């Protein structure tokens, strides 16, 4: 863990500007009061990978992704997007990122279509381009019926989809998605997976966090296991799995015991 | 159940104070303020005891009705209400509303304002002591009813306000209702200001007689009738007071029962409409900075009419100065100079009122941050949205004020001072909303709810922004004073200084605020999550 003052991280060794990883994190550290959420995390996301980040509740996944996307200032450490230091040159790094945060609100007094337009216009895009991409995204994400409805009236799954559309409208090269499939119905999930797969096939990079091991095994080609704010295993899916199922390996890595405490009183009763 | 709810309320209060020492300080200051008010009030009551029963009757009813009205207005326009025992929070417990209601009532009465009202009502014993034991007994009975009436009045006001603004179907008509009520209120205000103190005083007895039959005045009028020996009148008014309290309680119970089965927030399907964010922005190869500013201005304008928190801010930034002006005009001896200052009061409230603008985005602010939009675009977009309605409001207020005072020669001065204060206030807000943010009620929550965890930060931010706004406004205020008391032609200078100087200050504010945004954007978001 390289601890340097916040805002002035040392250039990480092995992070050249050409052929740099799509996303490189070095020594990321964040503390909330007495709780250390992320404790010196290093991770490289290669260009063109579909990268899954898994970990138990409270492992620091959301905190890490927030720091990696410019939404949360790290106490220590640095982040590079295609070799550009995110926290030193945000104006160059942020256009390359498309992000879907978890648990943050949206401007929900706008309609779905308006929110996509807003996201594009904020990035200074040409209004005509925004308009045509907005319509494409609404069709691709199956939001046609809801495009004119206020986001405040959306279900959780629709909210995820509209946030994804906002993340895609400026055609970023790296997508960072925090729990993108949570609350999304199976058919929409299939559509989103197809979009993301195509994006990776044409050279884009996707980073997503998830609790669902089966999903990660299905869609990701690389995976990192995060626990207690550190990466405890990372690499290709097969390297990390080591011949087992990801779920089994995950439980092994974390050394989790089965919960044996039974709730003997928990049964349907009248009282 | 009553004891449980009261304990819950005290426990919540205790936790808040432990987490936020500032809140404890404010609580202490509030209690201290109430205590320091007591000697003056007792003095007033002793003075009243020496007056004729007609005067006692009139003064007590008017003052009492004003106090009860304050219970309705203060939480809605100024402070927000304590929603720690919000009925909807008990919806999932499966306890019948009838069992919760007494607890809500008693817990609601455990507060400084309620204690103050109760003490004051008991203090009326001083006024009516000479009336005999029976009158004194009636005063005590009324003192038991008054705090309950006060609590019910405040609950109705906040519930009605929330209902009116909360339902999405009504939300766009709300702005219209607000504007209309101001249009209606304005002339009324001006009429009273014109009647002056003496004219208004002549109407007091008639007003008091009418008020005595309403829930606001009945409870205060009972001892007066009894002291005059008019026992049927006393009991009739007591009946009005008790019946309105009982009916109010039943109505509140109905509202609670309804809140417990239909939690707010998930209204029906709203109206659909096309994409209005992009409609006004043409593809003319505008710079990204301008495009982003216009988008933010368009989004902010939507919020000014569609978000209850903004609608409330808009209405109160125009209504509060009018109320203040009326109070000054009836109490003070110079109603004309008060009328002349309305434009400045409106301007100050609008400009300074934006000092925490980013916090109203809540965590949705992440979209601005993620887009990498330049800080100055964020600052400028928000400011444009305020200027769009703020400039006309200030201009109308300034000109109307000068017209009411019959001083057309002071129009340039009033206009210059008003616009100057508005621009300077927005400049200060543009810096403070990224340097001194504090949490506010979230979008979709009750616009009257106070936010936990922000008492200290809000006091510091409000104090600093008002002091800085005042200092920067000094040139136009002094110039206005010169025009008023020396020669009106100075007004043209004030107008120039207000518009040009204010414009320069605003531009500096946007630049400084934009730089602060780039530096501290993520820190601001962390405060709002």
Gist of the model:
Helices cover 32% and strands 23% of the residues of chain A. Chain A contains nine helices and ten strands.
Molecular structure report:
- The complex is a heterodimer of chains A (271) and B (529).
- With 271 residues, chain A is an alpha/beta fold.
- Chain A is 32% helix and 23% strand.
- Chain A contains 9 helices and 10 strands.
- Chain A has helices at 61-68, 90-93, 112-122, 127-140, 156-168, 186-201, 213-219, 237-241, 246-254; strands at 23-32, 35-45, 50-54, 76-81, 84-85, 97-100, 174-178, 205-210, 222-227, 230-236.
- In chain A, helix 3 crosses helix 4 and helix 3 packs parallel to helix 5.
- The longest helix of chain A has 16 residues, at 186-201.
- Chain B is an all-alpha fold.
- Chain B contains 19 helices and no strands.
- Chain B has helices spanning 2-19, 21-49, 53-79, 97-109, 112-128, 133-166, 171-202, 204-211, 218-227, 231-261, 288-306, 308-331, 335-340, 342-353, 366-371, 375-404, 411-435, 455-485, 490-528.
- The longest helix of chain B has 39 residues, at 490-528.
- Chain B is globular.
- Classes of the chains: A alpha/beta (271), B mainly alpha (529).
- Chains A and B meet through helix 2, helix 3 and helix 4 of A and helix 11, helix 15 and helix 19 of B.
């Amino acid at each position: 863990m390289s601890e340097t003052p916040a805002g002035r991280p040392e250039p990480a060794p092995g992070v050249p500007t050409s052929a740099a990883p799509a996303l490189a994190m070095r020594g990321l550290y964040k503390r909330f009061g007495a709780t250390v959420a992320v404790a010196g995390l290093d991770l490289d996301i290669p260009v063109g990978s579909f990268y899954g980040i898994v970990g138990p509740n409270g492992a620091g996944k959301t905190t890490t992704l927030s720091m990696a996307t410019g939404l949360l200032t790290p106490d220590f450490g640095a982040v590079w997007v295609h070799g550009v230091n995110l926290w030193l040159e945000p104006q160059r790094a942020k256009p390359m990122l498309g992000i879907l945060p978890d648990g943050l609100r949206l401007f929900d007094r706008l309609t779905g279509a308006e929110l996509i337009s807003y996201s594009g216009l904020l990035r200074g895009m040409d209004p005509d381009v925004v308009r045509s991409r907005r319509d494409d995204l609404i069709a691709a994400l199956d939001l046609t019926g809801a495009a004119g409805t206020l986001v405040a009236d959306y279900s959780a799954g629709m909210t995820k989809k509209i946030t994804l559309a906002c993340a895609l409208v400026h055609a970023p090269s790296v997508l960072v998605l925090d729990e993108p499939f949570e609350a999304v119905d199976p058919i929409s999930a299939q559509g989103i997976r197809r979009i993301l797969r195509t994006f990776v096939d044409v050279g884009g990079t996707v980073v997503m966090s998830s609790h669902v091991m089966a999903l990660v095994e299905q869609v990701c080609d690389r995976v990192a296991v995060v626990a207690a704010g550190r990466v405890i295993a990372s690499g290709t899916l097969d390297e990390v799995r080591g011949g087992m199922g990801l779920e089994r390996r995950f439980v092994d890595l974390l050394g989790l015991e089965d919960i044996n405490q039974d709730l003997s009183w928990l049964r349907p009763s009248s009282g | 159940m009553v004891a449980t709810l009261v304990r819950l309320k005290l426990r919540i209060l205790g936790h808040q104070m432990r987490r936020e020492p500032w809140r404890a300080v404010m609580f202490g200051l509030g209690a201290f303020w109430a205590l320091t008010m007591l000697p003056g009030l007792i003095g007033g009551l002793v003075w009243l005891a020496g007056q004729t029963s007609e005067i006692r009757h009139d003064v007590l009813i008017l003052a009492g009705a004003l106090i009860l009205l304050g219970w309705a207005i203060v939480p809605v326009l100024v402070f927000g209400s304590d929603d720690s025992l919000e009925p909807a929070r008990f919806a999932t417990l499966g306890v019948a509303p009838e069992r919760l209601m007494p607890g809500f009532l008693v817990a609601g009465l455990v507060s400084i304002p309620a204690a103050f009202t109760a003490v004051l009502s008991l203090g009326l014993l001083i006024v009516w002591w000479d009336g005999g034991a029976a009158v004194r007994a009636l005063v005590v009975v009324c003192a038991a009813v008054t705090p309950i009436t006060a609590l019910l009045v405040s609950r109705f006001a906040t519930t009605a306000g929330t209902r009116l603004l909360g339902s999405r179907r009504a939300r766009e008509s709300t702005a219209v209702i607000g504007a209309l009520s101001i249009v209606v209120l304005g002339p009324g205000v001006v009429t009273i200001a014109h009647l002056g103190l003496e004219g208004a005083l002549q109407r007091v007895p008639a007003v008091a007689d009418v008020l005595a039959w309403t829930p606001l005045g009945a409870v205060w009028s009972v001892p007066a009738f009894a002291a005059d020996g008019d026992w049927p009148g006393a009991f009739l008014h007591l009946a009005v007071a008790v019946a309105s309290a009982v009916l109010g309680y039943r109505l509140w119970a109905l509202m609670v029962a309804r809140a417990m089965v239909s939690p707010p927030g998930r209204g029906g399907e709203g109206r659909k409409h096309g994409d209005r964010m992009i409609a006004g922005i043409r593809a003319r190869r505008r710079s990204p900075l301008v495009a982003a500013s216009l988008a933010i201005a368009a989004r902010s304008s939507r919020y000014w009419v569609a978000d209850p928190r903004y609608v409330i801010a808009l209405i109160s930034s125009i209504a509060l100065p009018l109320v203040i002006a009326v109070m000054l005009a009836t109490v003070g001896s110079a109603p004309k100079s008060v009328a002349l200052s309305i434009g400045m009061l409106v301007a100050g409230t609008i400009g300074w009122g934006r000092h925490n603008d980013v916090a109203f985005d809540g965590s949705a602010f992440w979209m601005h941050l993620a887009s990498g939009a330049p800080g100055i675009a964020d600052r400028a977009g928000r400011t444009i949205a305020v200027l769009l309605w703020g400039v006309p409001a200030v201009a109308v207020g300034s000109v109307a004020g000068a017209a009411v005072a019959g001083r057309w020669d002071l129009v340039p001065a009033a206009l210059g001072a008003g616009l100057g204060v508005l621009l300077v206030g927005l400049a200060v807000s543009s810096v403070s909303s990224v340097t001194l943010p504090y949490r506010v009620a979230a979008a979709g929550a009750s616009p009257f709810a106070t936010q936990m965890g922000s008492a200290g930060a809000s006091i510091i931010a409000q104090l600093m922004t008002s002091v800085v706004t005042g200092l920067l406004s000094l040139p136009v205020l002094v110039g206005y004073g010169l025009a008023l008391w020396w020669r009106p032609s100075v007004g043209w200078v004030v107008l120039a200084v207000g518009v040009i100087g204010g414009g320069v200050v605003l531009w500096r504010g946007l630049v400084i605020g934009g730089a602060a945004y780039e530096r501290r954007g993520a820190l601001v978001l962390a405060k709002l999550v």
